[in-house]
Each structure stands twice: as C-alpha cells, then as structure tokens.
UniProtKB/TrEMBL annotation:
It comes from the Bacteria. InterPro entries: Glyas_Bleomycin-R_OHBP_Dase, Glyas_Fos-R_dOase_dom. This is VOC family protein. Residues 8-118 form the Glyoxalase/fosfomycin resistance/dioxygenase domain. It comes from Candidatus Enterococcus murrayae. The lineage of its organism: Bacteria, Bacillati, Bacillota, Bacilli, Lactobacillales.
C-alpha cells in the first residue's frame, strides 16, 4: 500500500547550492550527507511534511545510472496566500513568472538555481 510520504528527486549541478536555495525559500534541511562520494540533501517544507525533495548530484547520477532521466518532474506547490508568497520570493531574488488568476485561484512559477521550473497555486 502507498502511504502519504512522497519524495521527489531533483538533480542539481551543485547540491549544496541547491539546498541553500530551498532553505532561502523557508524549507528545512532534513539531511545532508555524502553517499558513495557524492552529496545528497533532503529538504522539506517542515520536519512534519509528508513531501520531501531529495537532491542528487546530476553529474554523479549521469555517470552511475544510465536509466536516470534528465527532465525534472513538474511540481505544483500549494499556498494559502499566493500573493504573500510571491512577495517573499521577490525579496530573496528568485526568478519569478507573473502572477495570473485562473478562476478563483492565483498561479505563478519560479526557477531554481539549475533552471528547473516550479508552479505555485492557491488562494
């Protein structure tokens, strides 16, 4: 059976830099370790979050796992106050798309240090 725990793999050119990026957005580091000579970080919105991002070194994965796919998954983060979150991300100098209203919800996208796009949606 599946449970509520979800871990999403992200590939980064610099694991430490990617981890610091997510920390600047308010995420907490759950672990940062070296595995087989490569860094791996696990971050989440909080220690109790059921969704974690696991950040692997892109070069290490490409050299050691020929089945790993290059494209990152598309993620949509929920927010109870999209406009306030947008303003917070502006203050930490994150590359942002415009806020758009779709029906009763607001949506915008942002880009991490490796050029991966993420979406935020909510009220």
């Amino acid at each position: 059976m599946f449970n509520e725990q979800v871990k999403v793999i992200l590939y980064a050119n610099d694991v430490k830099k990617a981890s610091l990026f997510w920390q600047s957005l308010g995420f907490e580091v759950l672990s940062f370790e070296e595995v087989d000579g490569s860094q791996v970080a696990e971050v989440a919105m909080s220690k109790n979050s059921t969704t974690h991002l696991v950040i692997y070194d892109r070069e290490f994965i490409e050299q050691n796992d020929d089945e790993a796919t290059e494209p990152s998954p598309a993620l949509i983060f929920g927010s109870d106050d999209v406009v306030a979150l947008y303003k917070k991300l502006q203050k930490v100098d994150v590359q942002l798309g415009d806020v758009a209203q779709i029906g009763e919800e607001y949506v915008f996208n942002f880009v991490d240090t490796d050029g991966n796009y993420f979406v935020v949606s909510g009220k």
